[in-house]
Amino acid sequence: MSRAYNFSPGPATLPEPVLRQAQATMLEFGDCGASILEISHRGPDFIAVAQQAEADLRTLLSIPDDYAVVFAAGGATTVQALLPLNFATPGQACDYVVSGHWGKTAIRQAAHCVDARTAASSEAGGFRDVPARADWQLSPDAAYVHLTANETIHGVEWRDARFSEAIEAGNAPLIADFSSSIASEPLDVAKFGAIYAGAQKNLGPVGISVLIVRRDLLQRSGQPRAPIFDYAAQAKAESMLNTPPSWNWYVLGLTVKWMLDEGGVAEFARRNARKAALLYAAIDGSGGYYRNEVAPGARSRMNVPFFLHDPALDRVFLDEAKQAGLVALKGHRVLGGMRASLYNAMPEAGVQALVDFMREFQQAHG
Fold this sequence. Notes:
By secondary structure, the protein is of the alpha/beta class. It is built from 10 helices and 14 strands. The chain has helices at 16-24, 44-61, 76-87, 101-110, 160-167, 231-236, 246-261, 264-284, 314-323, 348-365; strands at 5-6, 67-73, 93-98, 115-121, 145-148, 150-151, 156-157, 174-177, 194-198, 208-214, 290-291, 303-308, 326-327, 338-341. The strands form 4 sheets. The chain has a 7-stranded mixed sheet with strand order 2-10-9-8-5-3-4. Strands 11-12-14 form a 3-stranded antiparallel sheet, with helices on one face. The protein has a two-stranded parallel sheet with strand order 1-13. α2 (44-61) packs across α7. It is globular.
């Protein structure tokens, strides 16, 4: 059977060339006589894989030399729990700007060990926009300011002038969760104290995360923690304090290499803008049959939630979409409705197929 267009928010679709290359090397990697799943992470073959993945990621994202890159097991929620342990003292204020579900999750992960403060939130408006910069209440003694660059569930993304304002806010280092938008467009890493991402959206498979952190922040004493949770120790050990998720790291490296071969973040910015514009135009042009409730200036390019005019048609829509080769369109349980995730590996042809299906569905069931 042919592969469907997979609109899953994560674990998300991966580039077919990456999957084929991973498949080809599953049984035997290079001249090792064994799968990469079986070889030592301390051996020269895997060390070369790990070093190449970091070098390619640095090239892809233009990461400055004064930033360390840590690859670690787990996802973004794990990173959220470790940020205050590494970069704040016990009970110290840490400011969180909340624009959706994952921003709230980040606060919960930190609240047990720091004074996790909600500096601003758009929850009162149903998370349909980002908090206006004028409404932020920043703490003068905050260890850092945290925001979520793109909210996967609510389909809200920091864009344009408001993102520029957010980046320049306050004196504390800005730490941002880029799990669902990393590598989707050019980014000035130097504007941040740290950025992090679970890999399972744009970077690769579930089970591994990336932290890109300014090296001076690694000198902070933080809080008592096991060495395995110490980012300075992880960086010093080149992310190999213990056995890493080697297969995940390998596939991440293949994915990053694929993005470079395709033209890098500038090319994906163009593709992603076209894909998002195509889908939003279909929604907005449906005469209310479909609707997206996010403020236009905060609409996500990566995750597009939308609703049918009659929720009774939701199951019919999903069933017929699957028959048409369009899968994983069900919205998150927090919101319901539909959601299409348009990460880098989703081709424009997939979005066009979805738009065509939506038009045909409206004609058939309108």
